[in-house]
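User: I'm new to structure prediction. If I give you an amino acid sequence, what do you actually give back? Let's try with this one:
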Amino acid sequence: MQDIMLEVTDLTVNFRNDETEYTVVNSISFQVKKGETLGLVGESGCGKSVTSLSIMRLVPTPPGRIASGEIRYKGTTNLLALKEKEMNAVRGNEISMIFQEPMTSLTPVFTIGRQLDEVILLHTDLSKKAAKAKSIEMLKLVGIPRAEEIYSSYPHELSGGMRQRVMIAIGLACEPQLLIADEPTTALDVTIQAQILDLMRELKEKTDTSILFITHDLGVVAEMCDRVIVMYAGEIVEEADVDTLFHNPKHPYTCGLLESIPSLHEKKHRLFSIGGQVPAAGSIRIGCRFRDRCSAAFERCELEDPELVPLSSGHFCRCWLYAEQGGQS
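Assistant: Good question. You get back a string of structure tokens that encode the predicted 3D arrangement of the chain. For your 329 residues, that looks like this:
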């Protein structure tokens, strides 16, 4: 049995707009095991990034707040109960995060070297000279040429792919045991994206780092992940290992996402798309949140919230089609 690196239990995150408070992440639970890559997928607005920010205790307050739940690191430490000083010792050290857009995550007025040094000096006992050597070593590790020159450069002097490599170097500088990657390749062209994914896979093999990989790209999931969680409108609708999810998907939303992927082996005049849009947070109080876009919806979907039920070992689905069968696929 693999060790549990991170365990999220009944996490609920609310945001306030004027006088109204609405739920954007609704009582989700999952685990990340030591050395595995867990994919968190879904459309924009489904709560993926808010989940990752909650783990790092970076949800902006106000307007957001973590309403309930626990986030346990290595089975004992509840991150939500730590004081800010204690959380600072964990954040960037044992748990690191690569953000979606490196240009807004890197400080434009500081050099790359200064930003790398800052992380290393904050979390280690290295001298400034040793921190600089470590920073240059990290830049080389993530495949940046002319590392000494890039160390003295500013973010705007680098390409998007180079900036993303810098973000990965910063995330890995203190050799974290858990890395959260929030759509780290979204803004990159396919060639650079492939290089970044190869880099992350190599680094994971070298360091045995656990990765929570957040994306909306199922092609990336197939290439990177061991297990997958599918989110929709703030809830987990399906969870399975990557082979099961791609070869035996159950939730209508997961099936729709997979059907939307272009195929080299099948000619289509028009790509499939799921009709409608993700409902606004808080707009559905009762019933299945996917019902208005689901071709298999029936009366019960309007009246009751489905539970996340086990279909087989490690495979869970939130859908009345399977709850009606007693949780059997």
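You can read the tokens as a compact description of the fold. Here is one thing that stands out. The chain has a mean pLDDT of 88.
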